[in-house]
């Protein structure tokens, strides 16, 4: 990739920030997150064809053989829980064949105080619907994020949560952003160590298997909140 | 809601930033969508094509039995930046200008209803530069006179406003042309919504058409 110095030549740089980067993944080192799924041949690997820039991107496929509607594939990144504050998760993704995808989900699990607090954003690409999971565990449609994605287009996403208040702050999918401040996370039950799970959790549609590419993902602590 | 968008990151790789849509130093994996007339065109990252680093993008319309108007075309698809302002910047050179009829760099804006294109055509074989007007015709940019020299690396910049579907400007080899009064070319309807960068090389009478490119960048135009 270009160095920061090269970018300065090309375009004025942004002002400095005190945001702390917890983790960056462009998967050029070919170290994928842990994977899981309903089938025994799901794929969560670093593949060249999944690259937005650079060498590799994260390739998620629900099943390599005999695909079945409703197959799932999940990639999980686990990090330690930073000092409570505003946490931001960003990156890019793209669908291959939209009809193959029932639901794409971005999930943050905050394991703190002995509980597992979940903040979840889900996109249903075939209906154009985007939902969040409320404090009661129900999926609530976010009208402001409604959109019809196209295949092969790289989209940006951003999910911001307050790990101090255990609340959402905002969500961005593609070009649209929704204010979710004050909405509480869902208590998914008892949890162990203080950590964060960041998951891409995907369900195949009626024409499986699904394939979704991810690249240039970053987790930061923006401030105290 | 507090505005956290102002907290842009300090990152080791600028590709993580939201406003950077394409950042290809042509060293990694070739992930462009490629089409062409020849079955033996060249579209690869090669050491001979490097402006900086180890490799650059080598485009050649055909390896054998070249014919006039052979072409090779590359494309990347991405969503629009938050402001709707797009800029493409890249380095390019022609190893043999006389054999290359045209190099066209296009920013395409599909807004969910209509398709719009802002395009710059370099004509190395005839030493001219054109932009694509709103009627779909290429109009010579007399503000940027140019004599193409072989193996001379040029910097090209094309900026467009996807909100108004107008050009912003073109910059090439230290000269600039203000095209803010020019509308992009609206050539078709579409239900899709995306932005695209397209690169097209076409052969002259005595081809093959050939270009080297490096440090290809598309991002949100912040200086407007």
Q: Could you please describe the fold and organization of this structure?
A:
The complex is a heterodimer of chains A (225) and B (224). With 225 residues, chain A is mainly beta. Chain A contains 1 helix and 16 strands. In chain A, the strands form 2 sheets. In chain A, strands 1, 3, 4, 6, 11, 12, 13 and 16 form an 8-stranded antiparallel beta sheet that branches. In chain A, strands 2, 5, 7, 8, 9, 10, 14 and 15 form an 8-stranded antiparallel beta sheet that branches. The longest helix of chain A is centred in the first third of the chain and has 7 residues, at 4-10. Mean pLDDT of chain A is 90; it is low at 3-16. Chain B has 224 residues and is mainly beta. Chain B has one domain: Jelly Rolls (Sandwich), CATH 2.60.120.200. Helix content of chain B is 0%, strand content 50%. Chain B contains no helices and 16 strands. Chain B has strands spanning 20-24, 33-36, 42-46, 56-60, 71-78, 85-93, 100-111, 114-123, 128-132, 138-140, 154-161, 166-172, 175-178, 185-189, 193-203, 210-220. The model of chain B is unreliable at 1-12 (pLDDT under 50). At the A-B interface, helix 1, strand 6, strand 11 and strand 16 of A face strand 1 and strand 16 of B.
